[in-house]
Every structure is written in structure tokens, then in C-alpha cells.
Protein 1
Amino acid sequence: MTDGKKNHDTRAIDCAEAMRQLFDYLDGEVEAAAHEEIHRHLDGCRSCFSRVEFEKALKARVRKAARSRAPDSLKDRLDVLIRGFAVAGEAAARDREPKTRAGKDPRKSRG
Amino acid sequence: MEVTADSGAFFAGQVRGAMDSLYGAALKLTRNAGEAEDLVAEAVGRAWSAFQSLEDRSRFRPWLFRILTNTYIDRYRKRRDSPAMESWDDSGACDDDDGNFSLFERLHQPFLLWWGNPEQEYVNKLLREDINRAIDALPAVFRLAVILIDVEGFAYREAAEALGVPVNTVRSRLKRGRACLQKALWKHAGDIGVTKSATEGASLR
């Protein structure tokens, strides 16, 4: 902590404990108290701080390198599919409506 | 849940929003652009058919990725003879079986430290194709864990839903996947001038 305040809810942790939780911490998967404990440890430990900075930078690099954009051909294909679903959905909704208007339903024949 | 015009619009909006992520995951699974497109289209079709059974719409994204994953498994089971078929379990061969390899520890060595920050320099010099090659070489289940969490930013719980496994399984797959990825990146570290001496030093151990 850089503001000098003491937080009595958290305990001091050692390097082994901080590193055990390294990836959960980086992935935003630790509880607030544990987050604070790790954060405080990193503030005073150059070695763990360097490790965290490295893993963070590598993760960001991997993310940037491996992201893809869907090609336009796929976008067009999904648009066609989704429009087809909408048409089918409307037809299904019409079928569910009570058939009060005789003559509008082509399948109506008995009577 | 009944499919209405409103739910149709919801479905369309969600699919459009997830399109890049879906394609990215499909591309990393199939490692082939044409097959990735087919996989996404088939998964979206299946998702629409199953949409009425989705009770909690806030879980749409992991649900959709679960369908993508299952569609992939089904497609590849149908053609076991295909060279693209690979095992879909946690026993996949990975260079680092205990998940403990650390690139940082290899780079962070006293004889390198006196001339700068080799770790940072290494990350800066990594090429896009080095990273993608290393990801593509991971066994499928580890590859997908890395993609969902490191690339697509899923929370562990979301990834667990998308993969249909417990959160701890996601955690262990991710650990092994990352360790294998780092080991693969270390292997072509020699191409990057900054680690040449480190690679030689490590090989002597």
C-alpha cells in the first residue's frame, strides 16, 4: 500500500504464498482480502513484483497476438442464418395464435 | 421459454456481439479458417434450436461456447481418421507434465540481469506468429482453456460452464496450458537475441 494506511483485516504473506496465488490474482479470481494481501506483498518485494509484471505483460501479449476478427464472409453467413431464424420464429408465433379467423389458416379443413 | 420476436432479437444481438470470439475460438480449435467458419455456423444453428431450453439468459455466452465446443467434438469424432483429429481429454501430450515451467525463471538470471531487463525485452520481441504457433501446438483441452481465459477474458466460472467441467479442472488445464505455452516460447527464444545466452546456459543444466 502506498498511502501508508494499515489494513488490519489482511495478514502479511510470504513469497511462496504470493506466488501460489499468482495466476488467480492476475486473472482477477481472488477475493478482495487476498487481493489486498498480495498487493501489499508486491509493494515490498522486488522479486515477486518483477514476476507479476512479466506474467501480466506476457498475458497481454498473448491476448493481442491471438485475437481474431470474424471475416466478412462469416458475418454475412450468420446474418442470413439469423434472418432465417427470425422468419421461422414469426411463422411459429403465427401458428401458436388462436385460429379465430376462419379461412386464414390453410390447414383448416374440417367443420 | 417461448421463442418470440423479442427473444429472436436477443439471440441475434448476442451472436453478433460474440462473433469475433466465437470465430477466434473456432479458429484455434480447427486451425483452419474455412473449417472455423463452418464450425461457427453449425454451432449457431444448434444454439438457435436449443435456445428455448436456455433458462438464464445472463449465461448466454458460456452456453453458446459450450455448444461450439460440443459441435467441434461431434464433428471431429465423425472423422476419426482425419489427421486433424486429436484427443479431447486431459491426457494430451504436453511438454511440461507438471505445469511448473516458468519462462520468467529462465529469463530472470543473474548473468543476464546486469545488462538490462531481459524479461521485458523478451516479451517485446515476441512475434505474433511465434505466439500463435505455440498456442496451436498445445493439446486441444489446454489450448481451449488458454484461449477462453487469456484471449477471450472469460472468468473461471464462465469457462467451466463453457467446457462443462468443474472450476478446478479449468484451473489445472490453464496451469498446464500456460506452462506448455511458456516452454514452447522458450524453445524459440534463441531466435530472439536477448535470450541466446540464457538458452545456452539453460541447456548446460
Protein 2
Amino acid sequence: MTTDTEKLEADLSLALPGDYFALLKPRVMRLVVFTALVGMLLAPGAIDPVIGFIAILAIAIGAGASGALNMWYDADIDAVMSRTASRPVPSGRVTSGQALNFGMVLSLLAVLTLGLLVDWTAGFLLAFTIFFYAVVYTMWLKRSTPQNIVIGGAAGAFPPMIGWAAVTGTISLESIILFAIIFIWTPPHFWALALFKMRDYGDAQVPMMPNVAGEKSTRMQILAYSVLLAPLGVTPFVAGFAGLLYGTVSALLGAAFLWLAYRVWKIAGRDDKLLAEKRLFAFSIFYLFVLFAVLLVEAIVFRTTGVYLFAATGGL
Amino acid sequence: MAAGEGKIEPGSAIELTDAQRKARRSRNIAIGFGLFALVAVFYAATIVKFGPRLMDRPIININTN
């Protein structure tokens, strides 16, 4: 039996700042910063560097806050899956209430900062992104439909739109194209992962596509989304807000993406090591990173010299 | 405050272990940095947004017409 004093001691938090930092999903945050920065630099118009830095910071904190809210709500499933069992809440270093408060406070601060200091369209988009990720994806879709990551992928696709809006104060065709690329990229990326982590999601009773519709259907859908993605990846060039370098790189990488997705469909899991799936998953990360990196380089060159790398494009 | 309220009976108070004390201290420092960053961000944005115009206004409006 424990005395009152001992019980009180046991309730006091041992959480370190690093545990709270982990709640922000730093790896996701890094990707968000990167894509938001690309959206911001691609947008027509000037933004003060200090205000631009504040915008990126606010978007990063907002994205991190939605990660904390996700970990608050998902602690039960995170505890079951090997990939997530050591997160701060399931491992007991941070209580779920602390994660909730942390996420809510940071969400409010990030949205208010972005709205007040940068632009309210961007602020609204950030608020909507947090809501979409924490409520629509985490609380509703993730546990109820195999389309979870298809629709939830929108949350990950918003950052370049927010970056764009931080400069222009608007939502435009160009920023919607950037959104669409990440949106359509998400399902084949996640389902490739789900195919070789199937058992994990099954244990946690999260309805991922392979567990619900079967592996065959999942491979078919990966291929279908890849057919959409390959040409979509080239549209920034076609629409005239990216140069020939981007056009060439995106076309080549899109073809490679399609080929790897075709291999996943063709081999259909006959290889026990699921190499094709692992390859597609790894390549999908490389694909998105390179596409946005080229856009970033082109945007920087365009902003400093006024011309796109390797000649101008036709435009719409 | 009632007399004797400030006194703590031995064993009745929450005693922090070294690990708890250390964790709390580092959390407090992190919160401090966070608050300082927030102030710095709003200060920097104010300067950038208003800039020299901050001083560029009459204290008393004098009609020169």
C-alpha cells in the first residue's frame, strides 16, 4: 500500500521539453516547413523576410500542434503499433490531458500569430488545416473508413497553399495545383507503407485499405492514383509557374513512380519481402522531395534573376 | 492568511524527487524561451510593419490651411 505522499509524487510529471517537442511530430513539421516555403516563394509578390519567417514559424507550430492533438486522441492505437508505441503519450511520459492542452494552446497561438501578423486568409487556412487533421482525419475518418488517408491527405497538402496565401492573401489555381500534387501523392505513398505494415494496422483495428478491401484492390488503386499523379506532377510547368528544369525532372520522376507502382501491381505480393512495395514507398518520399526542391530552386533563381532556369515556358 | 498556514507538517507536503525537480526546471526554462520567442516575434513584426512610420505622425494635429 502507498501513502498519500508517495501517490502525489508519482503523479508529478517527469516530462522533459524534448517529450513535448516529440508531440509536434518534428519530421512531419520539417516537410510542412519545406512545402510551405516553396508555396511562399513561388507566389507572385513580395513578402518582408521577417514576416515570411514568422509565417513559416506559425505554419510549423500550427502543424506541430495538430500533431499533438493527433497523439492525444490516438494514444490507444499508437500503443498497439510498433511504429508509434514509443511516442510520448502511449509510453506514459506525457499524459493525454497535457498533450491536449499543449496542442490547443499552440494551435491558438499559431493561428492568431499568422492571422494578426501575416494574413487572415493564411490564418484561416491554417486553422482549417488543424481542424481537418485533428477532427476530420484523426477523430472521424481514421477509425471508420479505408478512405481515411485519401481524404485526410488534404491536411498534409494544405501547407503550400498557406504559404502562397501568406504572400498573396488569396487562393489561386497555382496553389490549388500544389495542393493537388500532395493530395494525389498521399494514397499511393501511404498504401505502399500499409502493404508492408499491414499487420500493425490490423492489430490496432485501423481500417487501412489493404485490411479492408484486400491487397489486390489496394495495388490496383495505388496504380490508379499513380496514373493520375505522373501527369499532375508536370502541371506546374504546363500552367507556366515552373520552368523547363522542373518540367523535365517531374516528367522523368513521374514515369519512374508509375513504373514502380506498376511493379507493385504486377508482382502482387508474390515476393515475400515485399521489395516492390518498400521501393515504391521510399521512392515516393524522394519524388515529392525532389519536385518541391526543384520548385524551390527555380523560385529562388526566378526571384533573383527574373527568369526561369533553362528558358521560359508557354504558360496558360 | 490564518496563523500557521504557511507552516508545512513534515511528510504532509509533496516532496519532489531529484528527477522531478530537474524535469520541472527544464520545462520551465523551455516555457520561458517560448514566451520570449513570442514577444520577440510580435516586437519584430511591429517594427517591420510600421518601421520608421512609427514616428511619422503628428502628436497634435495642426490645421495648416
